[in-house]
Amino acid sequence: MLVVGFPAGPLEANCYLLAPEGGGACVIVDPGEDVAGPLEAALSQHGLTPVAMLATHGHPDHVASADEIGARHGIPLYLHEADRPLLGRDAGERKDGIVPLAEGPLGLAGLEITVSGTPGHTAGSVVFGLTSAEGGRIVLTGDSLFAGSIGRSAGDGDELVRSLGAKVMTMPDETVVLPGHGPATTIGQERAGNPFLAGTGA
């Protein structure tokens, strides 16, 4: 599985490209602020054609470029319905180009993606889990889980901790965590050292 990630925008939110391999279809995760330029460069470098955008949640630093990229490539944005109002009045009422995300398996670009709801940072926050053909596991956590921290800003910290305990920290230790900001980590590292997860049974 090919995973390409880069930070963009004033808040350096991580945008990711996921594909079974180079030279084919891919999905874009969290097309945030100022993403278009580096995204097009990465698509060209790896010979990728996007078929959809996925949002871990609806904050602008994770979806601000969705309209531009969607129009350029003719692809929809998958977003949990609870976060649609965060897109603003016009986008929140728009039906075209936005596909509601639901928990469970989602097949896109030859990938099997597991969508799990993790409300707390926002009402519609989700994480995306994948297993590579070689057996490696990754989870894209948006602003729900970071290396050494969690995303409580403007959200419900208690609800988020419960969500993480039930949906994320049950994953194997070797699962690679690709967060919405900052460096990658693993479930094992967070289980051992994330102070916000103490008492979750992780």
Task: Furnish the topology, listing elements before pairings.
Blueprint: E1 2-8, E2 13-19, E3 25-29, H1 36-46, E4 49-54, H2 60-63, H3 66-73, E5 77-80, H4 89-93, E6 98-101, E7 104-108, E8 111-117, E9 126-131, E10 137-142, E11 145-146, E12 149-150, H5 157-167, E13 176-179, E14 185-186, H6 187-193
Parallel strand pairs: 3-4, 4-5, 5-6, 10-13
Antiparallel strand pairs: 1-2, 2-3, 7-8, 8-9, 9-10, 11-12, 13-14
Q: Any overview of this molecule?
A:
With 202 residues, the chain is an alpha/beta fold. The chain has one domain (2-197): Metallo-beta-lactamase, Chain A (4-Layer Sandwich), CATH 3.60.15.10. The protein is 23% helix and 33% strand. It has helices spanning 36-46, 60-63, 66-73, 89-93, 157-167, 187-193, and strands spanning 2-8, 13-19, 25-29, 49-54, 77-80, 98-101, 104-108, 111-117, 126-131, 137-142, 145-146, 149-150, 176-179, 185-186. Strands 1-2-3-4-5-6 form a 6-stranded mixed sheet. Strands 7-8-9-10-13-14 form a 6-stranded mixed sheet. The chain has a two-stranded antiparallel ribbon with strand order 11-12. The longest helix has 11 residues, at 36-46. It is globular and about 45 Å long.
Share of β-strand residues: 25-35%
Q: Kindly, what is the distance between the CA atoms of the first and last residues, rounded to a whole number of angstroms?
A: 28 Å
* Assembly state: single chain
- The amount of helix comes to 10-25%
Low-confidence stretches: none
Secondary-structure-based class equals alpha/beta
CATH architecture: 4-Layer Sandwich
Rg: 16 Å
- List the total number of helices: 6
The helix-strand sequence is: EEEHEHHEHEEEEEEEHEEH
When the domains are counted, the total is 1
Query: What is the CATH top level name?
Result: Alpha Beta
CATH topology-level fold name: Metallo-beta-lactamase, Chain A
Could you state the CATH homologous superfamily?
A: Ribonuclease Z/Hydroxyacylglutathione hydrolase-like
Biggest β-sheet strands, sense, barrel? 6 strands, mixed
Strand order of the largest sheet: 1-2-3-4-5-6
* Tally of strands: 14
Query: On the 0-100 scale, what is the average pLDDT?
Result: 92
Shape: globular
